[in-house]
Amino acid sequence: MNKLEELKKHLKRGKVYRRADLSKWSKSVDRHLEELVQEGTLQKLSQGVYFYPELTVFGEAPPEEEVLVRSFLKDTRFLLTSFNAYNALGVGTTQLYNTKTVYNHKRHGEFKLGGVTFTFKRKPHFPLKATPEFLLVDLLNNLDQLAEDPNEVVSRVCFKAKTMDAKKLRNSLRDYGSIKAKKLLEPVLSA
After folding, report:
1. Are residues 89 and 131 in the same domain?
2. Which tens digit of pLDDT belongs to each residue from 96-136?
3. Last residue within a domain, chosen from 63, 91, 107
4. HEC string for 158-181
5. What's the total number of domains in the chain?
6. pTM
7. Range of 183's domain?
8. What is the H or E stretch that residue 59 is in?
9. How many CB atoms lie within 10 A of CB 32?
10. Do 10 and 93 belong together in one domain?
């Protein structure tokens, strides 16, 4: 059995690999990666990140975003979200955005991974899961980046804040809110 076939034995469908992950099974990892990409076994997602697609009845399935981000960051401490999540809050946001936001402790900037654009934002604090309270605060943090009319959204956010769990919202505002978000929501919460 040649070295390339030996390397293939270690690959699992649906998994994302970094070059460093595969170097333990190959002394010529760059040459082998190039061959595996050319023959279609692996797909190159970004510099040093590869995917072994899972086969479905519809063809090759793309990598799960969580797995892709975890491999790219080499870390499990991140929150993957999108401005689209604000639409579920019922505060008048209806736009659809193509970019995913990744709050993390390591990377900052925009990266294209597997054809999807991810905006990595380095933050000292973020929750493990995007709760409605966090999303409301996050919406105010990112208000200037949204396509909707900010004044209209703020008035709806203030109304929505009155219907939410005040303690959870206060904690989210304290832990994750920008100065602007705090100025907008604190008067509503103390009323």
Report:
1. yes
2. 998 999 999 999 999 988 888 999 999 999 999 999 999 99
3. 63
4. HHHHHHCCHHHHHHHHHHHCCHHH
5. 2
6. 0.83
7. 76-190
8. strand 59-61
9. 21
10. no
